[in-house]
Each structure stands twice: as structure tokens, then as C-alpha cells.
Write a structure and sequence with these properties.
By secondary structure, this protein is of the alpha/beta class. It has a four-stranded parallel sheet, sandwiched between helices. The protein starts with a strand and ends with a helix. The chain has a domain of about 70 residues: ATPase, V1 complex, subunit F (Rossmann fold). The protein is about 45% helix and about 20% strand.
Length: about 100
């Protein structure tokens, strides 16, 4: 079971540093395409998506979060989120997947 990250460049870069592939997105259409790519890979068990990216495709994300059992969708604050204030990227990765950098 693999992880996949969808979000802003900073989030994707941080997760790629620990070996998690992903796609940086800046629009709803890019987020939808990246989400589809993550779903098409049967090895993807957990999709990590920033709140900003998820908000652009909310109906699609909610459908998988609330009606599908696989893959697991985990939303994290993006680099511009107020929830992230005071947290560095290392802390965000650790909270999302439990891997310490």
C-alpha cells in the first residue's frame, strides 16, 4: 500500500523528500486530474491532499471520504493555511503519516 500527495508545491516537495510521490496542483482541474491519477494506481492506499486542493474538488473528495472504503483520504493544511501557523513541514509530514524526517 502506497501513499500519494496532492497539493501545493511546498507540501508535495516535503513528502517527496521521504519518498512519497505526488503532484503539485494550482487549480481545481489539475487537482481533479491528479486525484484521478492517484485512484488509477491500485497500489495507492492513502491519498494525502491539502485542504486547498480538496476544496477545489470537494464533491469528489467527499464521495471517497464518506462512501468508499478504499483508498483512505487524509486532508492536511496547505502551506498557506492558518492551521499550519507555527508548524514546519517536518511536523506536518510526521502528523500526517507518522514518519519522522
Amino acid at each position: 500500500m502506497n501513499y500519494f500527495i496532492i497539493g501545493d508545491e511546498d507540501a508535495v516537495l516535503g513528502f517527496e523528500l521521504v519518498g512519497i510521490p505526488g503532484i503539485a496542483v494550482s487549480s481545481a482541474s489539475e487537482a481533479e486530474e491528479a486525484f484521478g491519477q492517484a485512484l488509477s494506481n491500485r497500489d495507492t492506499g492513502i491519498i494525502i491532499i491539502t485542504e486547498e486542493a480538496a476544496d477545489g474538488i470537494r464533491a469528489l473528495v467527499d464521495r471517497y471520504m464518506f462512501t468508499e472504503t478504499f483508498p483512505l483520504i487524509v486532508e492536511i493544511p496547505g502551506s498557506m493555511s492558518e492551521e499550519r501557523s507555527g508548524k514546519d513541514l517536518r511536523t506536518m509530514v510526521n502528523e500526517a503519516i507518522g514518519i519522522k524526517l
